[in-house]
């Protein structure tokens, strides 16, 4: 047999390189978690980096350790306490290790035979999370690849259940155009899902938000009436728990009242904040989630698992089996009701990763307080950051934070220029300096710096240092304004 194949499958090589990699990653973790000064996001140019890797491919020789070291060096360091960027969690190291096992076993899970243990484990994880969301034994769901896929899965189920005919087989032949109501602040994956369903822009009925960027429940009836007046049939409403931009939780209870009154589907996008339901201190933010027909929760956001690991839960588990009614004789058989354990009948994916295993391992090893402690600690940090801004009259919060997402900006005293431009420049300068990684957002036409405190080891000193750097940078750049 080809010697490259023998080499690629050599168990001794795997053992040796595996030990070295774990050592290398452990040192990396120590450096990051200890806050060792390093560029949190090493500055780079996309074209230059692409050229570098292209040249490396053609260069002679290859040192695996050096390859790993370079890759680590060039990456965004989520485990560093000064990583405050997008909503991707620094995974609990054990969950990354479990993912190695998942990768090697590679049980595809489309049907039970392709991954018996991981299928059973996924069911256990889904049922555990469903209880945490306040659902009863009728609930069911599936793990899928990300919140975007999760929202699409939930909304496909809504369409199948509420449109009044078998849309899966017959297509979009409803006599009236269908629509979903959602706040202006929803993640773009919701409107993308609606477009994928073929309803176009008009399939999204936007509900205004209040000053806190929260869906204005008092505007639901008017939005519904206006949509009906335009000939649209609203079949569902989406609540955010929470919004991406400002981390604001919508009033889920009031949205649930509305959904019940009109007999429409209630979907909660809890990709980021759904995990608050696991905490004693912040559970109140998700009040009403237990009344949803479908809920999405990302484990790779607020539940310490590597990307991508998303739960889609259905209050009535039947819906989980009715969303994708496709026949595939070679895989799914021809029966009408597919068994729960053949997951390809219930998810976008055919082959899918053994996602539940790492969640199960974390649950068993650390207990569910790992998740509640993590969510509580990071949400507390959001409050702390807001408090730290209070003494500074030049610092403005976009909204009082509900969670670990905080949006703020600095307007130096006497500054009369374009604050949006200044704020964007401040972020650019801070990212270039690379002591911190932060992002920005546009809230109703106003640009704010946006931090998501994903790292439980970010301390008050880090928050103070960021605030100091933002204020000093704003003053420095404002001076050069014309
Ligand atoms: C509220 C919300 N929903 C959905 C998504 C999409 O999730 P994913 O990136 O896992 O596809 C995000 C991502 O930021 C989000 O914040």
Itemize the secondary structure elements and their pairings:
Elements: H1 3-8, H2 11-33, H3 46-58, H4 64-74, H5 93-105, H6 116-132, E1 140-144, H7 147-162, H8 167-170, E2 178-183, H9 188-196, E3 204-207, H10 220-229, E4 233-240, H11 252-262, E5 265-269, E6 294-298, H12 299-302, E7 310-314, H13 318-322, H14 356-366, H15 369-389, E8 395-397, E9 405-410, H16 419-433, E10 439-443, E11 446-452, H17 460-479
Parallel strand pairs: 2-3, 2-4, 4-5, 5-6
Antiparallel strand pairs: 1-7, 6-7, 8-9, 9-11, 10-11
This protein binds pyridoxal-5'-phosphate.
Structural class designation: alpha/beta
Integer-rounded radius of gyration: 24 Å
Which runs of at least 5 residues are low in confidence (pLDDT < 50)?
none
> Residue-averaged pLDDT, rounded?
96
Q: Strand portion, in percent? A: 5-15%
**Bound ligand species:** pyridoxal-5'-phosphate
CATH first level of the largest domain: which class? Answer: Alpha Beta
User: What is the helix tally?
Assistant: 17
- Total count of domains: 2
- Would you identify the CATH H-level superfamily of the largest domain? Type I PLP-dependent aspartate aminotransferase-like (Major domain)
In which order are the strands of the major sheet placed?
1-7-6-5-4-2-3
Here the CATH topology of the largest domain equals Aspartate Aminotransferase, domain 2
Termini distance? 71 Å
CATH architectural arrangement of the largest domain: 3-Layer(aba) Sandwich
User: How many strands appear in the DSSP assignment?
Assistant: 11
Broad shape: globular
* Helix percentage range: 40-55%
Biggest β-sheet strands, sense, barrel: 7 strands, mixed
